[in-house]
Amino acid sequence: MIERKTKLFVNIAFLAGIFISAIGLFIGIGKKTADAAPYLSDGTYTCSYAIGDTSSIGETMIGQNIDDKVKVEVKNGVYYLSVSYKTSAGMTDLALGFSGNVGKMQRTSGDKTTITYTLSKKRAEGKLPFSVYVSAMDRRTSFSITPDLSSAIKISDTIEDIGERPAEFVPVIATSAGAEYGAQSGSGHYFIIPPATATIGEEDCEVKISVTVNGEEASVSDGRFMIERAGKYILTYRAESDKYKTSEGNNTFSELAVTVNASAEASDLARFSYEDKVPEGLSLLVGLADENSLLFAKASEALKDISVKFSVFTVEIIDGGKAVDKLDEAVAIDLKADLSIDRTKAEAYRLTDDGKLEKLSVKGAGRYVRAEIDGSGTYIVLEPGVPFKMPRWAYAVIIEACVLIVGVACFFIFRARRKKGLTEKRGEEDPEIKEDKKETEK
Predict the structure, then answer these.
(1) How far apart are the C-alpha atoms of 291 and 309, rounded to whole Å?
(2) Domain definitions of the chain by residue range
(3) 3-class SS of residue 3
(4) CA nearest 296: which of 251, 338, 246?
(5) Is 232's pLDDT higher than 80?
(6) For strand 169-170 and strand 101-102, is the pairing parallel, antiparallel, or unpaired?
(7) pLDDT at 31 over 50
(8) DSSP readout, 50-65?
(9) Topology of 170-265 in CATH?
(10) Are 186 and 264 in contact (CB under 8 A)?
């Protein structure tokens, strides 16, 4: 009896070991922590890296599209890490996911894009969280890269001359402005400049505004500028801080450029649906939000359970050169939806200042989606639907179930073999075999 209990405890311990090992592999228990890499002297290096934290795309796909080595340049203790990837494979808009705005420079040659990030040594040798847009999935997905600085091979005593390099951190500019606007030119037509703020950490930064039209400086007054003639107007927001310095010792800065395409005709981004029903003197100023903007990120968060296909518009209703927050009566406007959005399934929402969604009644209008609005604001046109993503806890449940099944199977196999062994030890024939023989003799 004692021997049977001992063997039972041994088998339970064995199964428990399997279970703990499986869970340990899943959550990374016992993962070896790399020693801190030595400081690198000034110069240019190449080094290997490890890929981790892959979500919807696998390590193989990432490895096939990102260069197998990262370039690390060092000058005066500052690390400049360059990641190169192929955009032809449907991966675009690579972004480093640290909070705050990390200084970077981007260059594209053919189908390859290289982004150089300014980092401290501590960050350069740690796990770098990235996200990238995958066109085949029509959404962003995340992964991480951990450079192995201990494997760095020096290839030059100097760094590449690509001009002034940004500081490790740059100001974050926040504005509701779209990346691109369409506007009608002519006397009395104004562009109302959306306000902007900037911060670096907890410090507020002053935002300066400048405007050029076809390369010439334009006059800005009372938060607006007149669109007197057709052409390309470039509105630039610039913020600086002396908290960090660039490679040339200047204050860290960031700039945000907004394009306003003005023509004698009204913008094709949006239009009043029924011109004859629009009060005299009203006009539309419509912008399309950039996918890298804070406004787009705010919309994306609000829509995370609704859609991954959407366009974000900033709509200003102008009356006498000033924006109208609220109209006495709603008007119908046509918003030019992205070509990827199915017009027969399209929906429209208003995004409030506090990130809430207000659904609007809509109908198709050719390449446009028609909706009724009662004032200026942020509007979204989308196609409903989000891809299924299994939660992490579900994987843990599956692993536990698999381990349990294997454990139960092992238990019954062991039990059957032990029973057979005891029978043979007593010189007896297995009861099941004995029964089969009786049936055969009959």
Answers:
(1) 12
(2) 43-166, 170-265, 269-387, 392-441
(3) helix
(4) 338
(5) yes
(6) antiparallel
(7) no
(8) EEE---SS-HHHHHHH
(9) Immunoglobulin-like (2.60.40)
(10) yes
Task: Please say whether the beta carbons of 85 and 130 come within 8 A.
Answer: no
| CATH T-level assignment (fold) for domain 43-166 | Immunoglobulin-like (2.60.40)
Q: What is the residue whose two structure tokens read 């310095």?
A: 245
What long-range pairs does 86-90 form, CB within 8 A, spacing at least 24?
A: 86/111, 86/112, 87/111, 87/112, 87/113, 89/64, 89/65, 90/134, 90/135, 90/136
Half-sphere exposure of 88 toward its Cβ, with a 13 Å CA cutoff?
A: 5
Please state whether the predicted TM-score (pTM) of the whole model is above 0.70.
no
Q: Give which of 289, 193, 200 is closest to 235, Cα–Cα.
A: 193
Collapsing DSSP to helix, strand or coil, 90 comes out as coil
Question: In which residue are the tokens 């960050």 written?
Answer: 123
Q: What's the pLDDT tens digit per position in 265-318?
A: 766 777 787 766 777 777 777 888 877 677 888 888 888 888 877 888 888 887
Task: Tell me which residue of 435, 431, 406 sits closest to 416, measured CA to CA.
Answer: 431
CA–CA dist 114, 87 (Å, integer): 10
Q: 79 is written with which tokens?
A: 């690390």
